[in-house]
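Notes, Module 5: Reading structure tokens.

Key idea: the token line is not a picture. It is a compressed description, and you learn to read it the same way you learned to read a sequence, by spotting repeated patterns. We will look at two proteins. The first is printed below with its tokens.
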Amino acid sequence: MLGAVIFDFDGVIVDSHPAHMQAWKSFLLTKGKAFSDAELSFVREGAKREDILKRFLGELTPEEAASYGAEKDRLFQVRAGELKLVPGFAEFLLQLDAVALPSAVATSGSRGRVEQALEFFNLRDRFRAVVTGDDVERGKPDPSLFLLAAQILQVDASQILVCEDAVAGVLAAKSAGMKCVGLAANGRESMLQQAGADMVVNDFSHTGLVDVTRLFAYLNIRTSF
């Protein structure tokens, strides 16, 4: 049965991808690097900040990575007023609260940026755990983020639903032994399905707690024979 829900952050809780992408583009321009939107799409795939920096700027010292990451986050904060919740998310979270189902955030994003956004939307206290890229050595598609969140929640992986919008996130969830709902408002339904998502919807306004619970009921029926 469903025992907990883990949410990715960017594109799942908050519609932050446009601001996030623009912040990275602006930051990279300050370093003399210009990339197309297609090249920058890697930013949306759940990689840790250090991995994004390495991809676009090459090897950096830990001090350089920390400094550059802080620069990028400052550029993101300039656009923070543009952020909005993903459609239907607030209502979906209320459904979890109504049945006292625990939830967590597990994102490759930096803790400072994620915590600040959660506070802005008065969401920080709604989650039992917030796990970020600062808490693990490897980002998605490695399952470490989700497994750490499950450990804090004290819920077995087989009873956890992950909500993700990135292929790497879906792969991480499935590698962790969890069910996964893919959010594909960006038209990436087939990619998320091919990665192994158990259900794909445009946003939370197209699904509810009853719908996702059926994923676990179906699993129980199949394994009862």
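Here is the second protein, with the sequence above and the tokens below, as before.
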Amino acid sequence: MSEKGKQENQLNIEISEEVAEGSYANLAIITHSHAEFVIDFVNVMPGTPKSKVKNRIILTPFHAKRFMKAITDNIKKFESVNGVIQDMESVEIPFTFGGPPAQA
């Protein structure tokens, strides 16, 4: 492919400072319909009975599958450098994360 062809196929992606900061999530809830997958990212705080969805991503089934493949590939690369990530099924974490109940 020529240099001009390569430049035409490149995608210029920008990110704002606010989005670049990211947001932490320790729970993902995934639902789907015939037309889309919805992933809700939640930050559950220890001892807090209520949490809010921090981010919602909506994907077509095609893009959801591509996302799954990309995550799988990146986990394999991560584990090859850092060791195997312990699977959550083998770790028992209480819903309160061991912290005291929240008080107002």
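Summary for the second protein:
- DSSP finds three helices and three strands in the chain.
- The CA atoms of residues 1 and 7 lie 10 Å apart.
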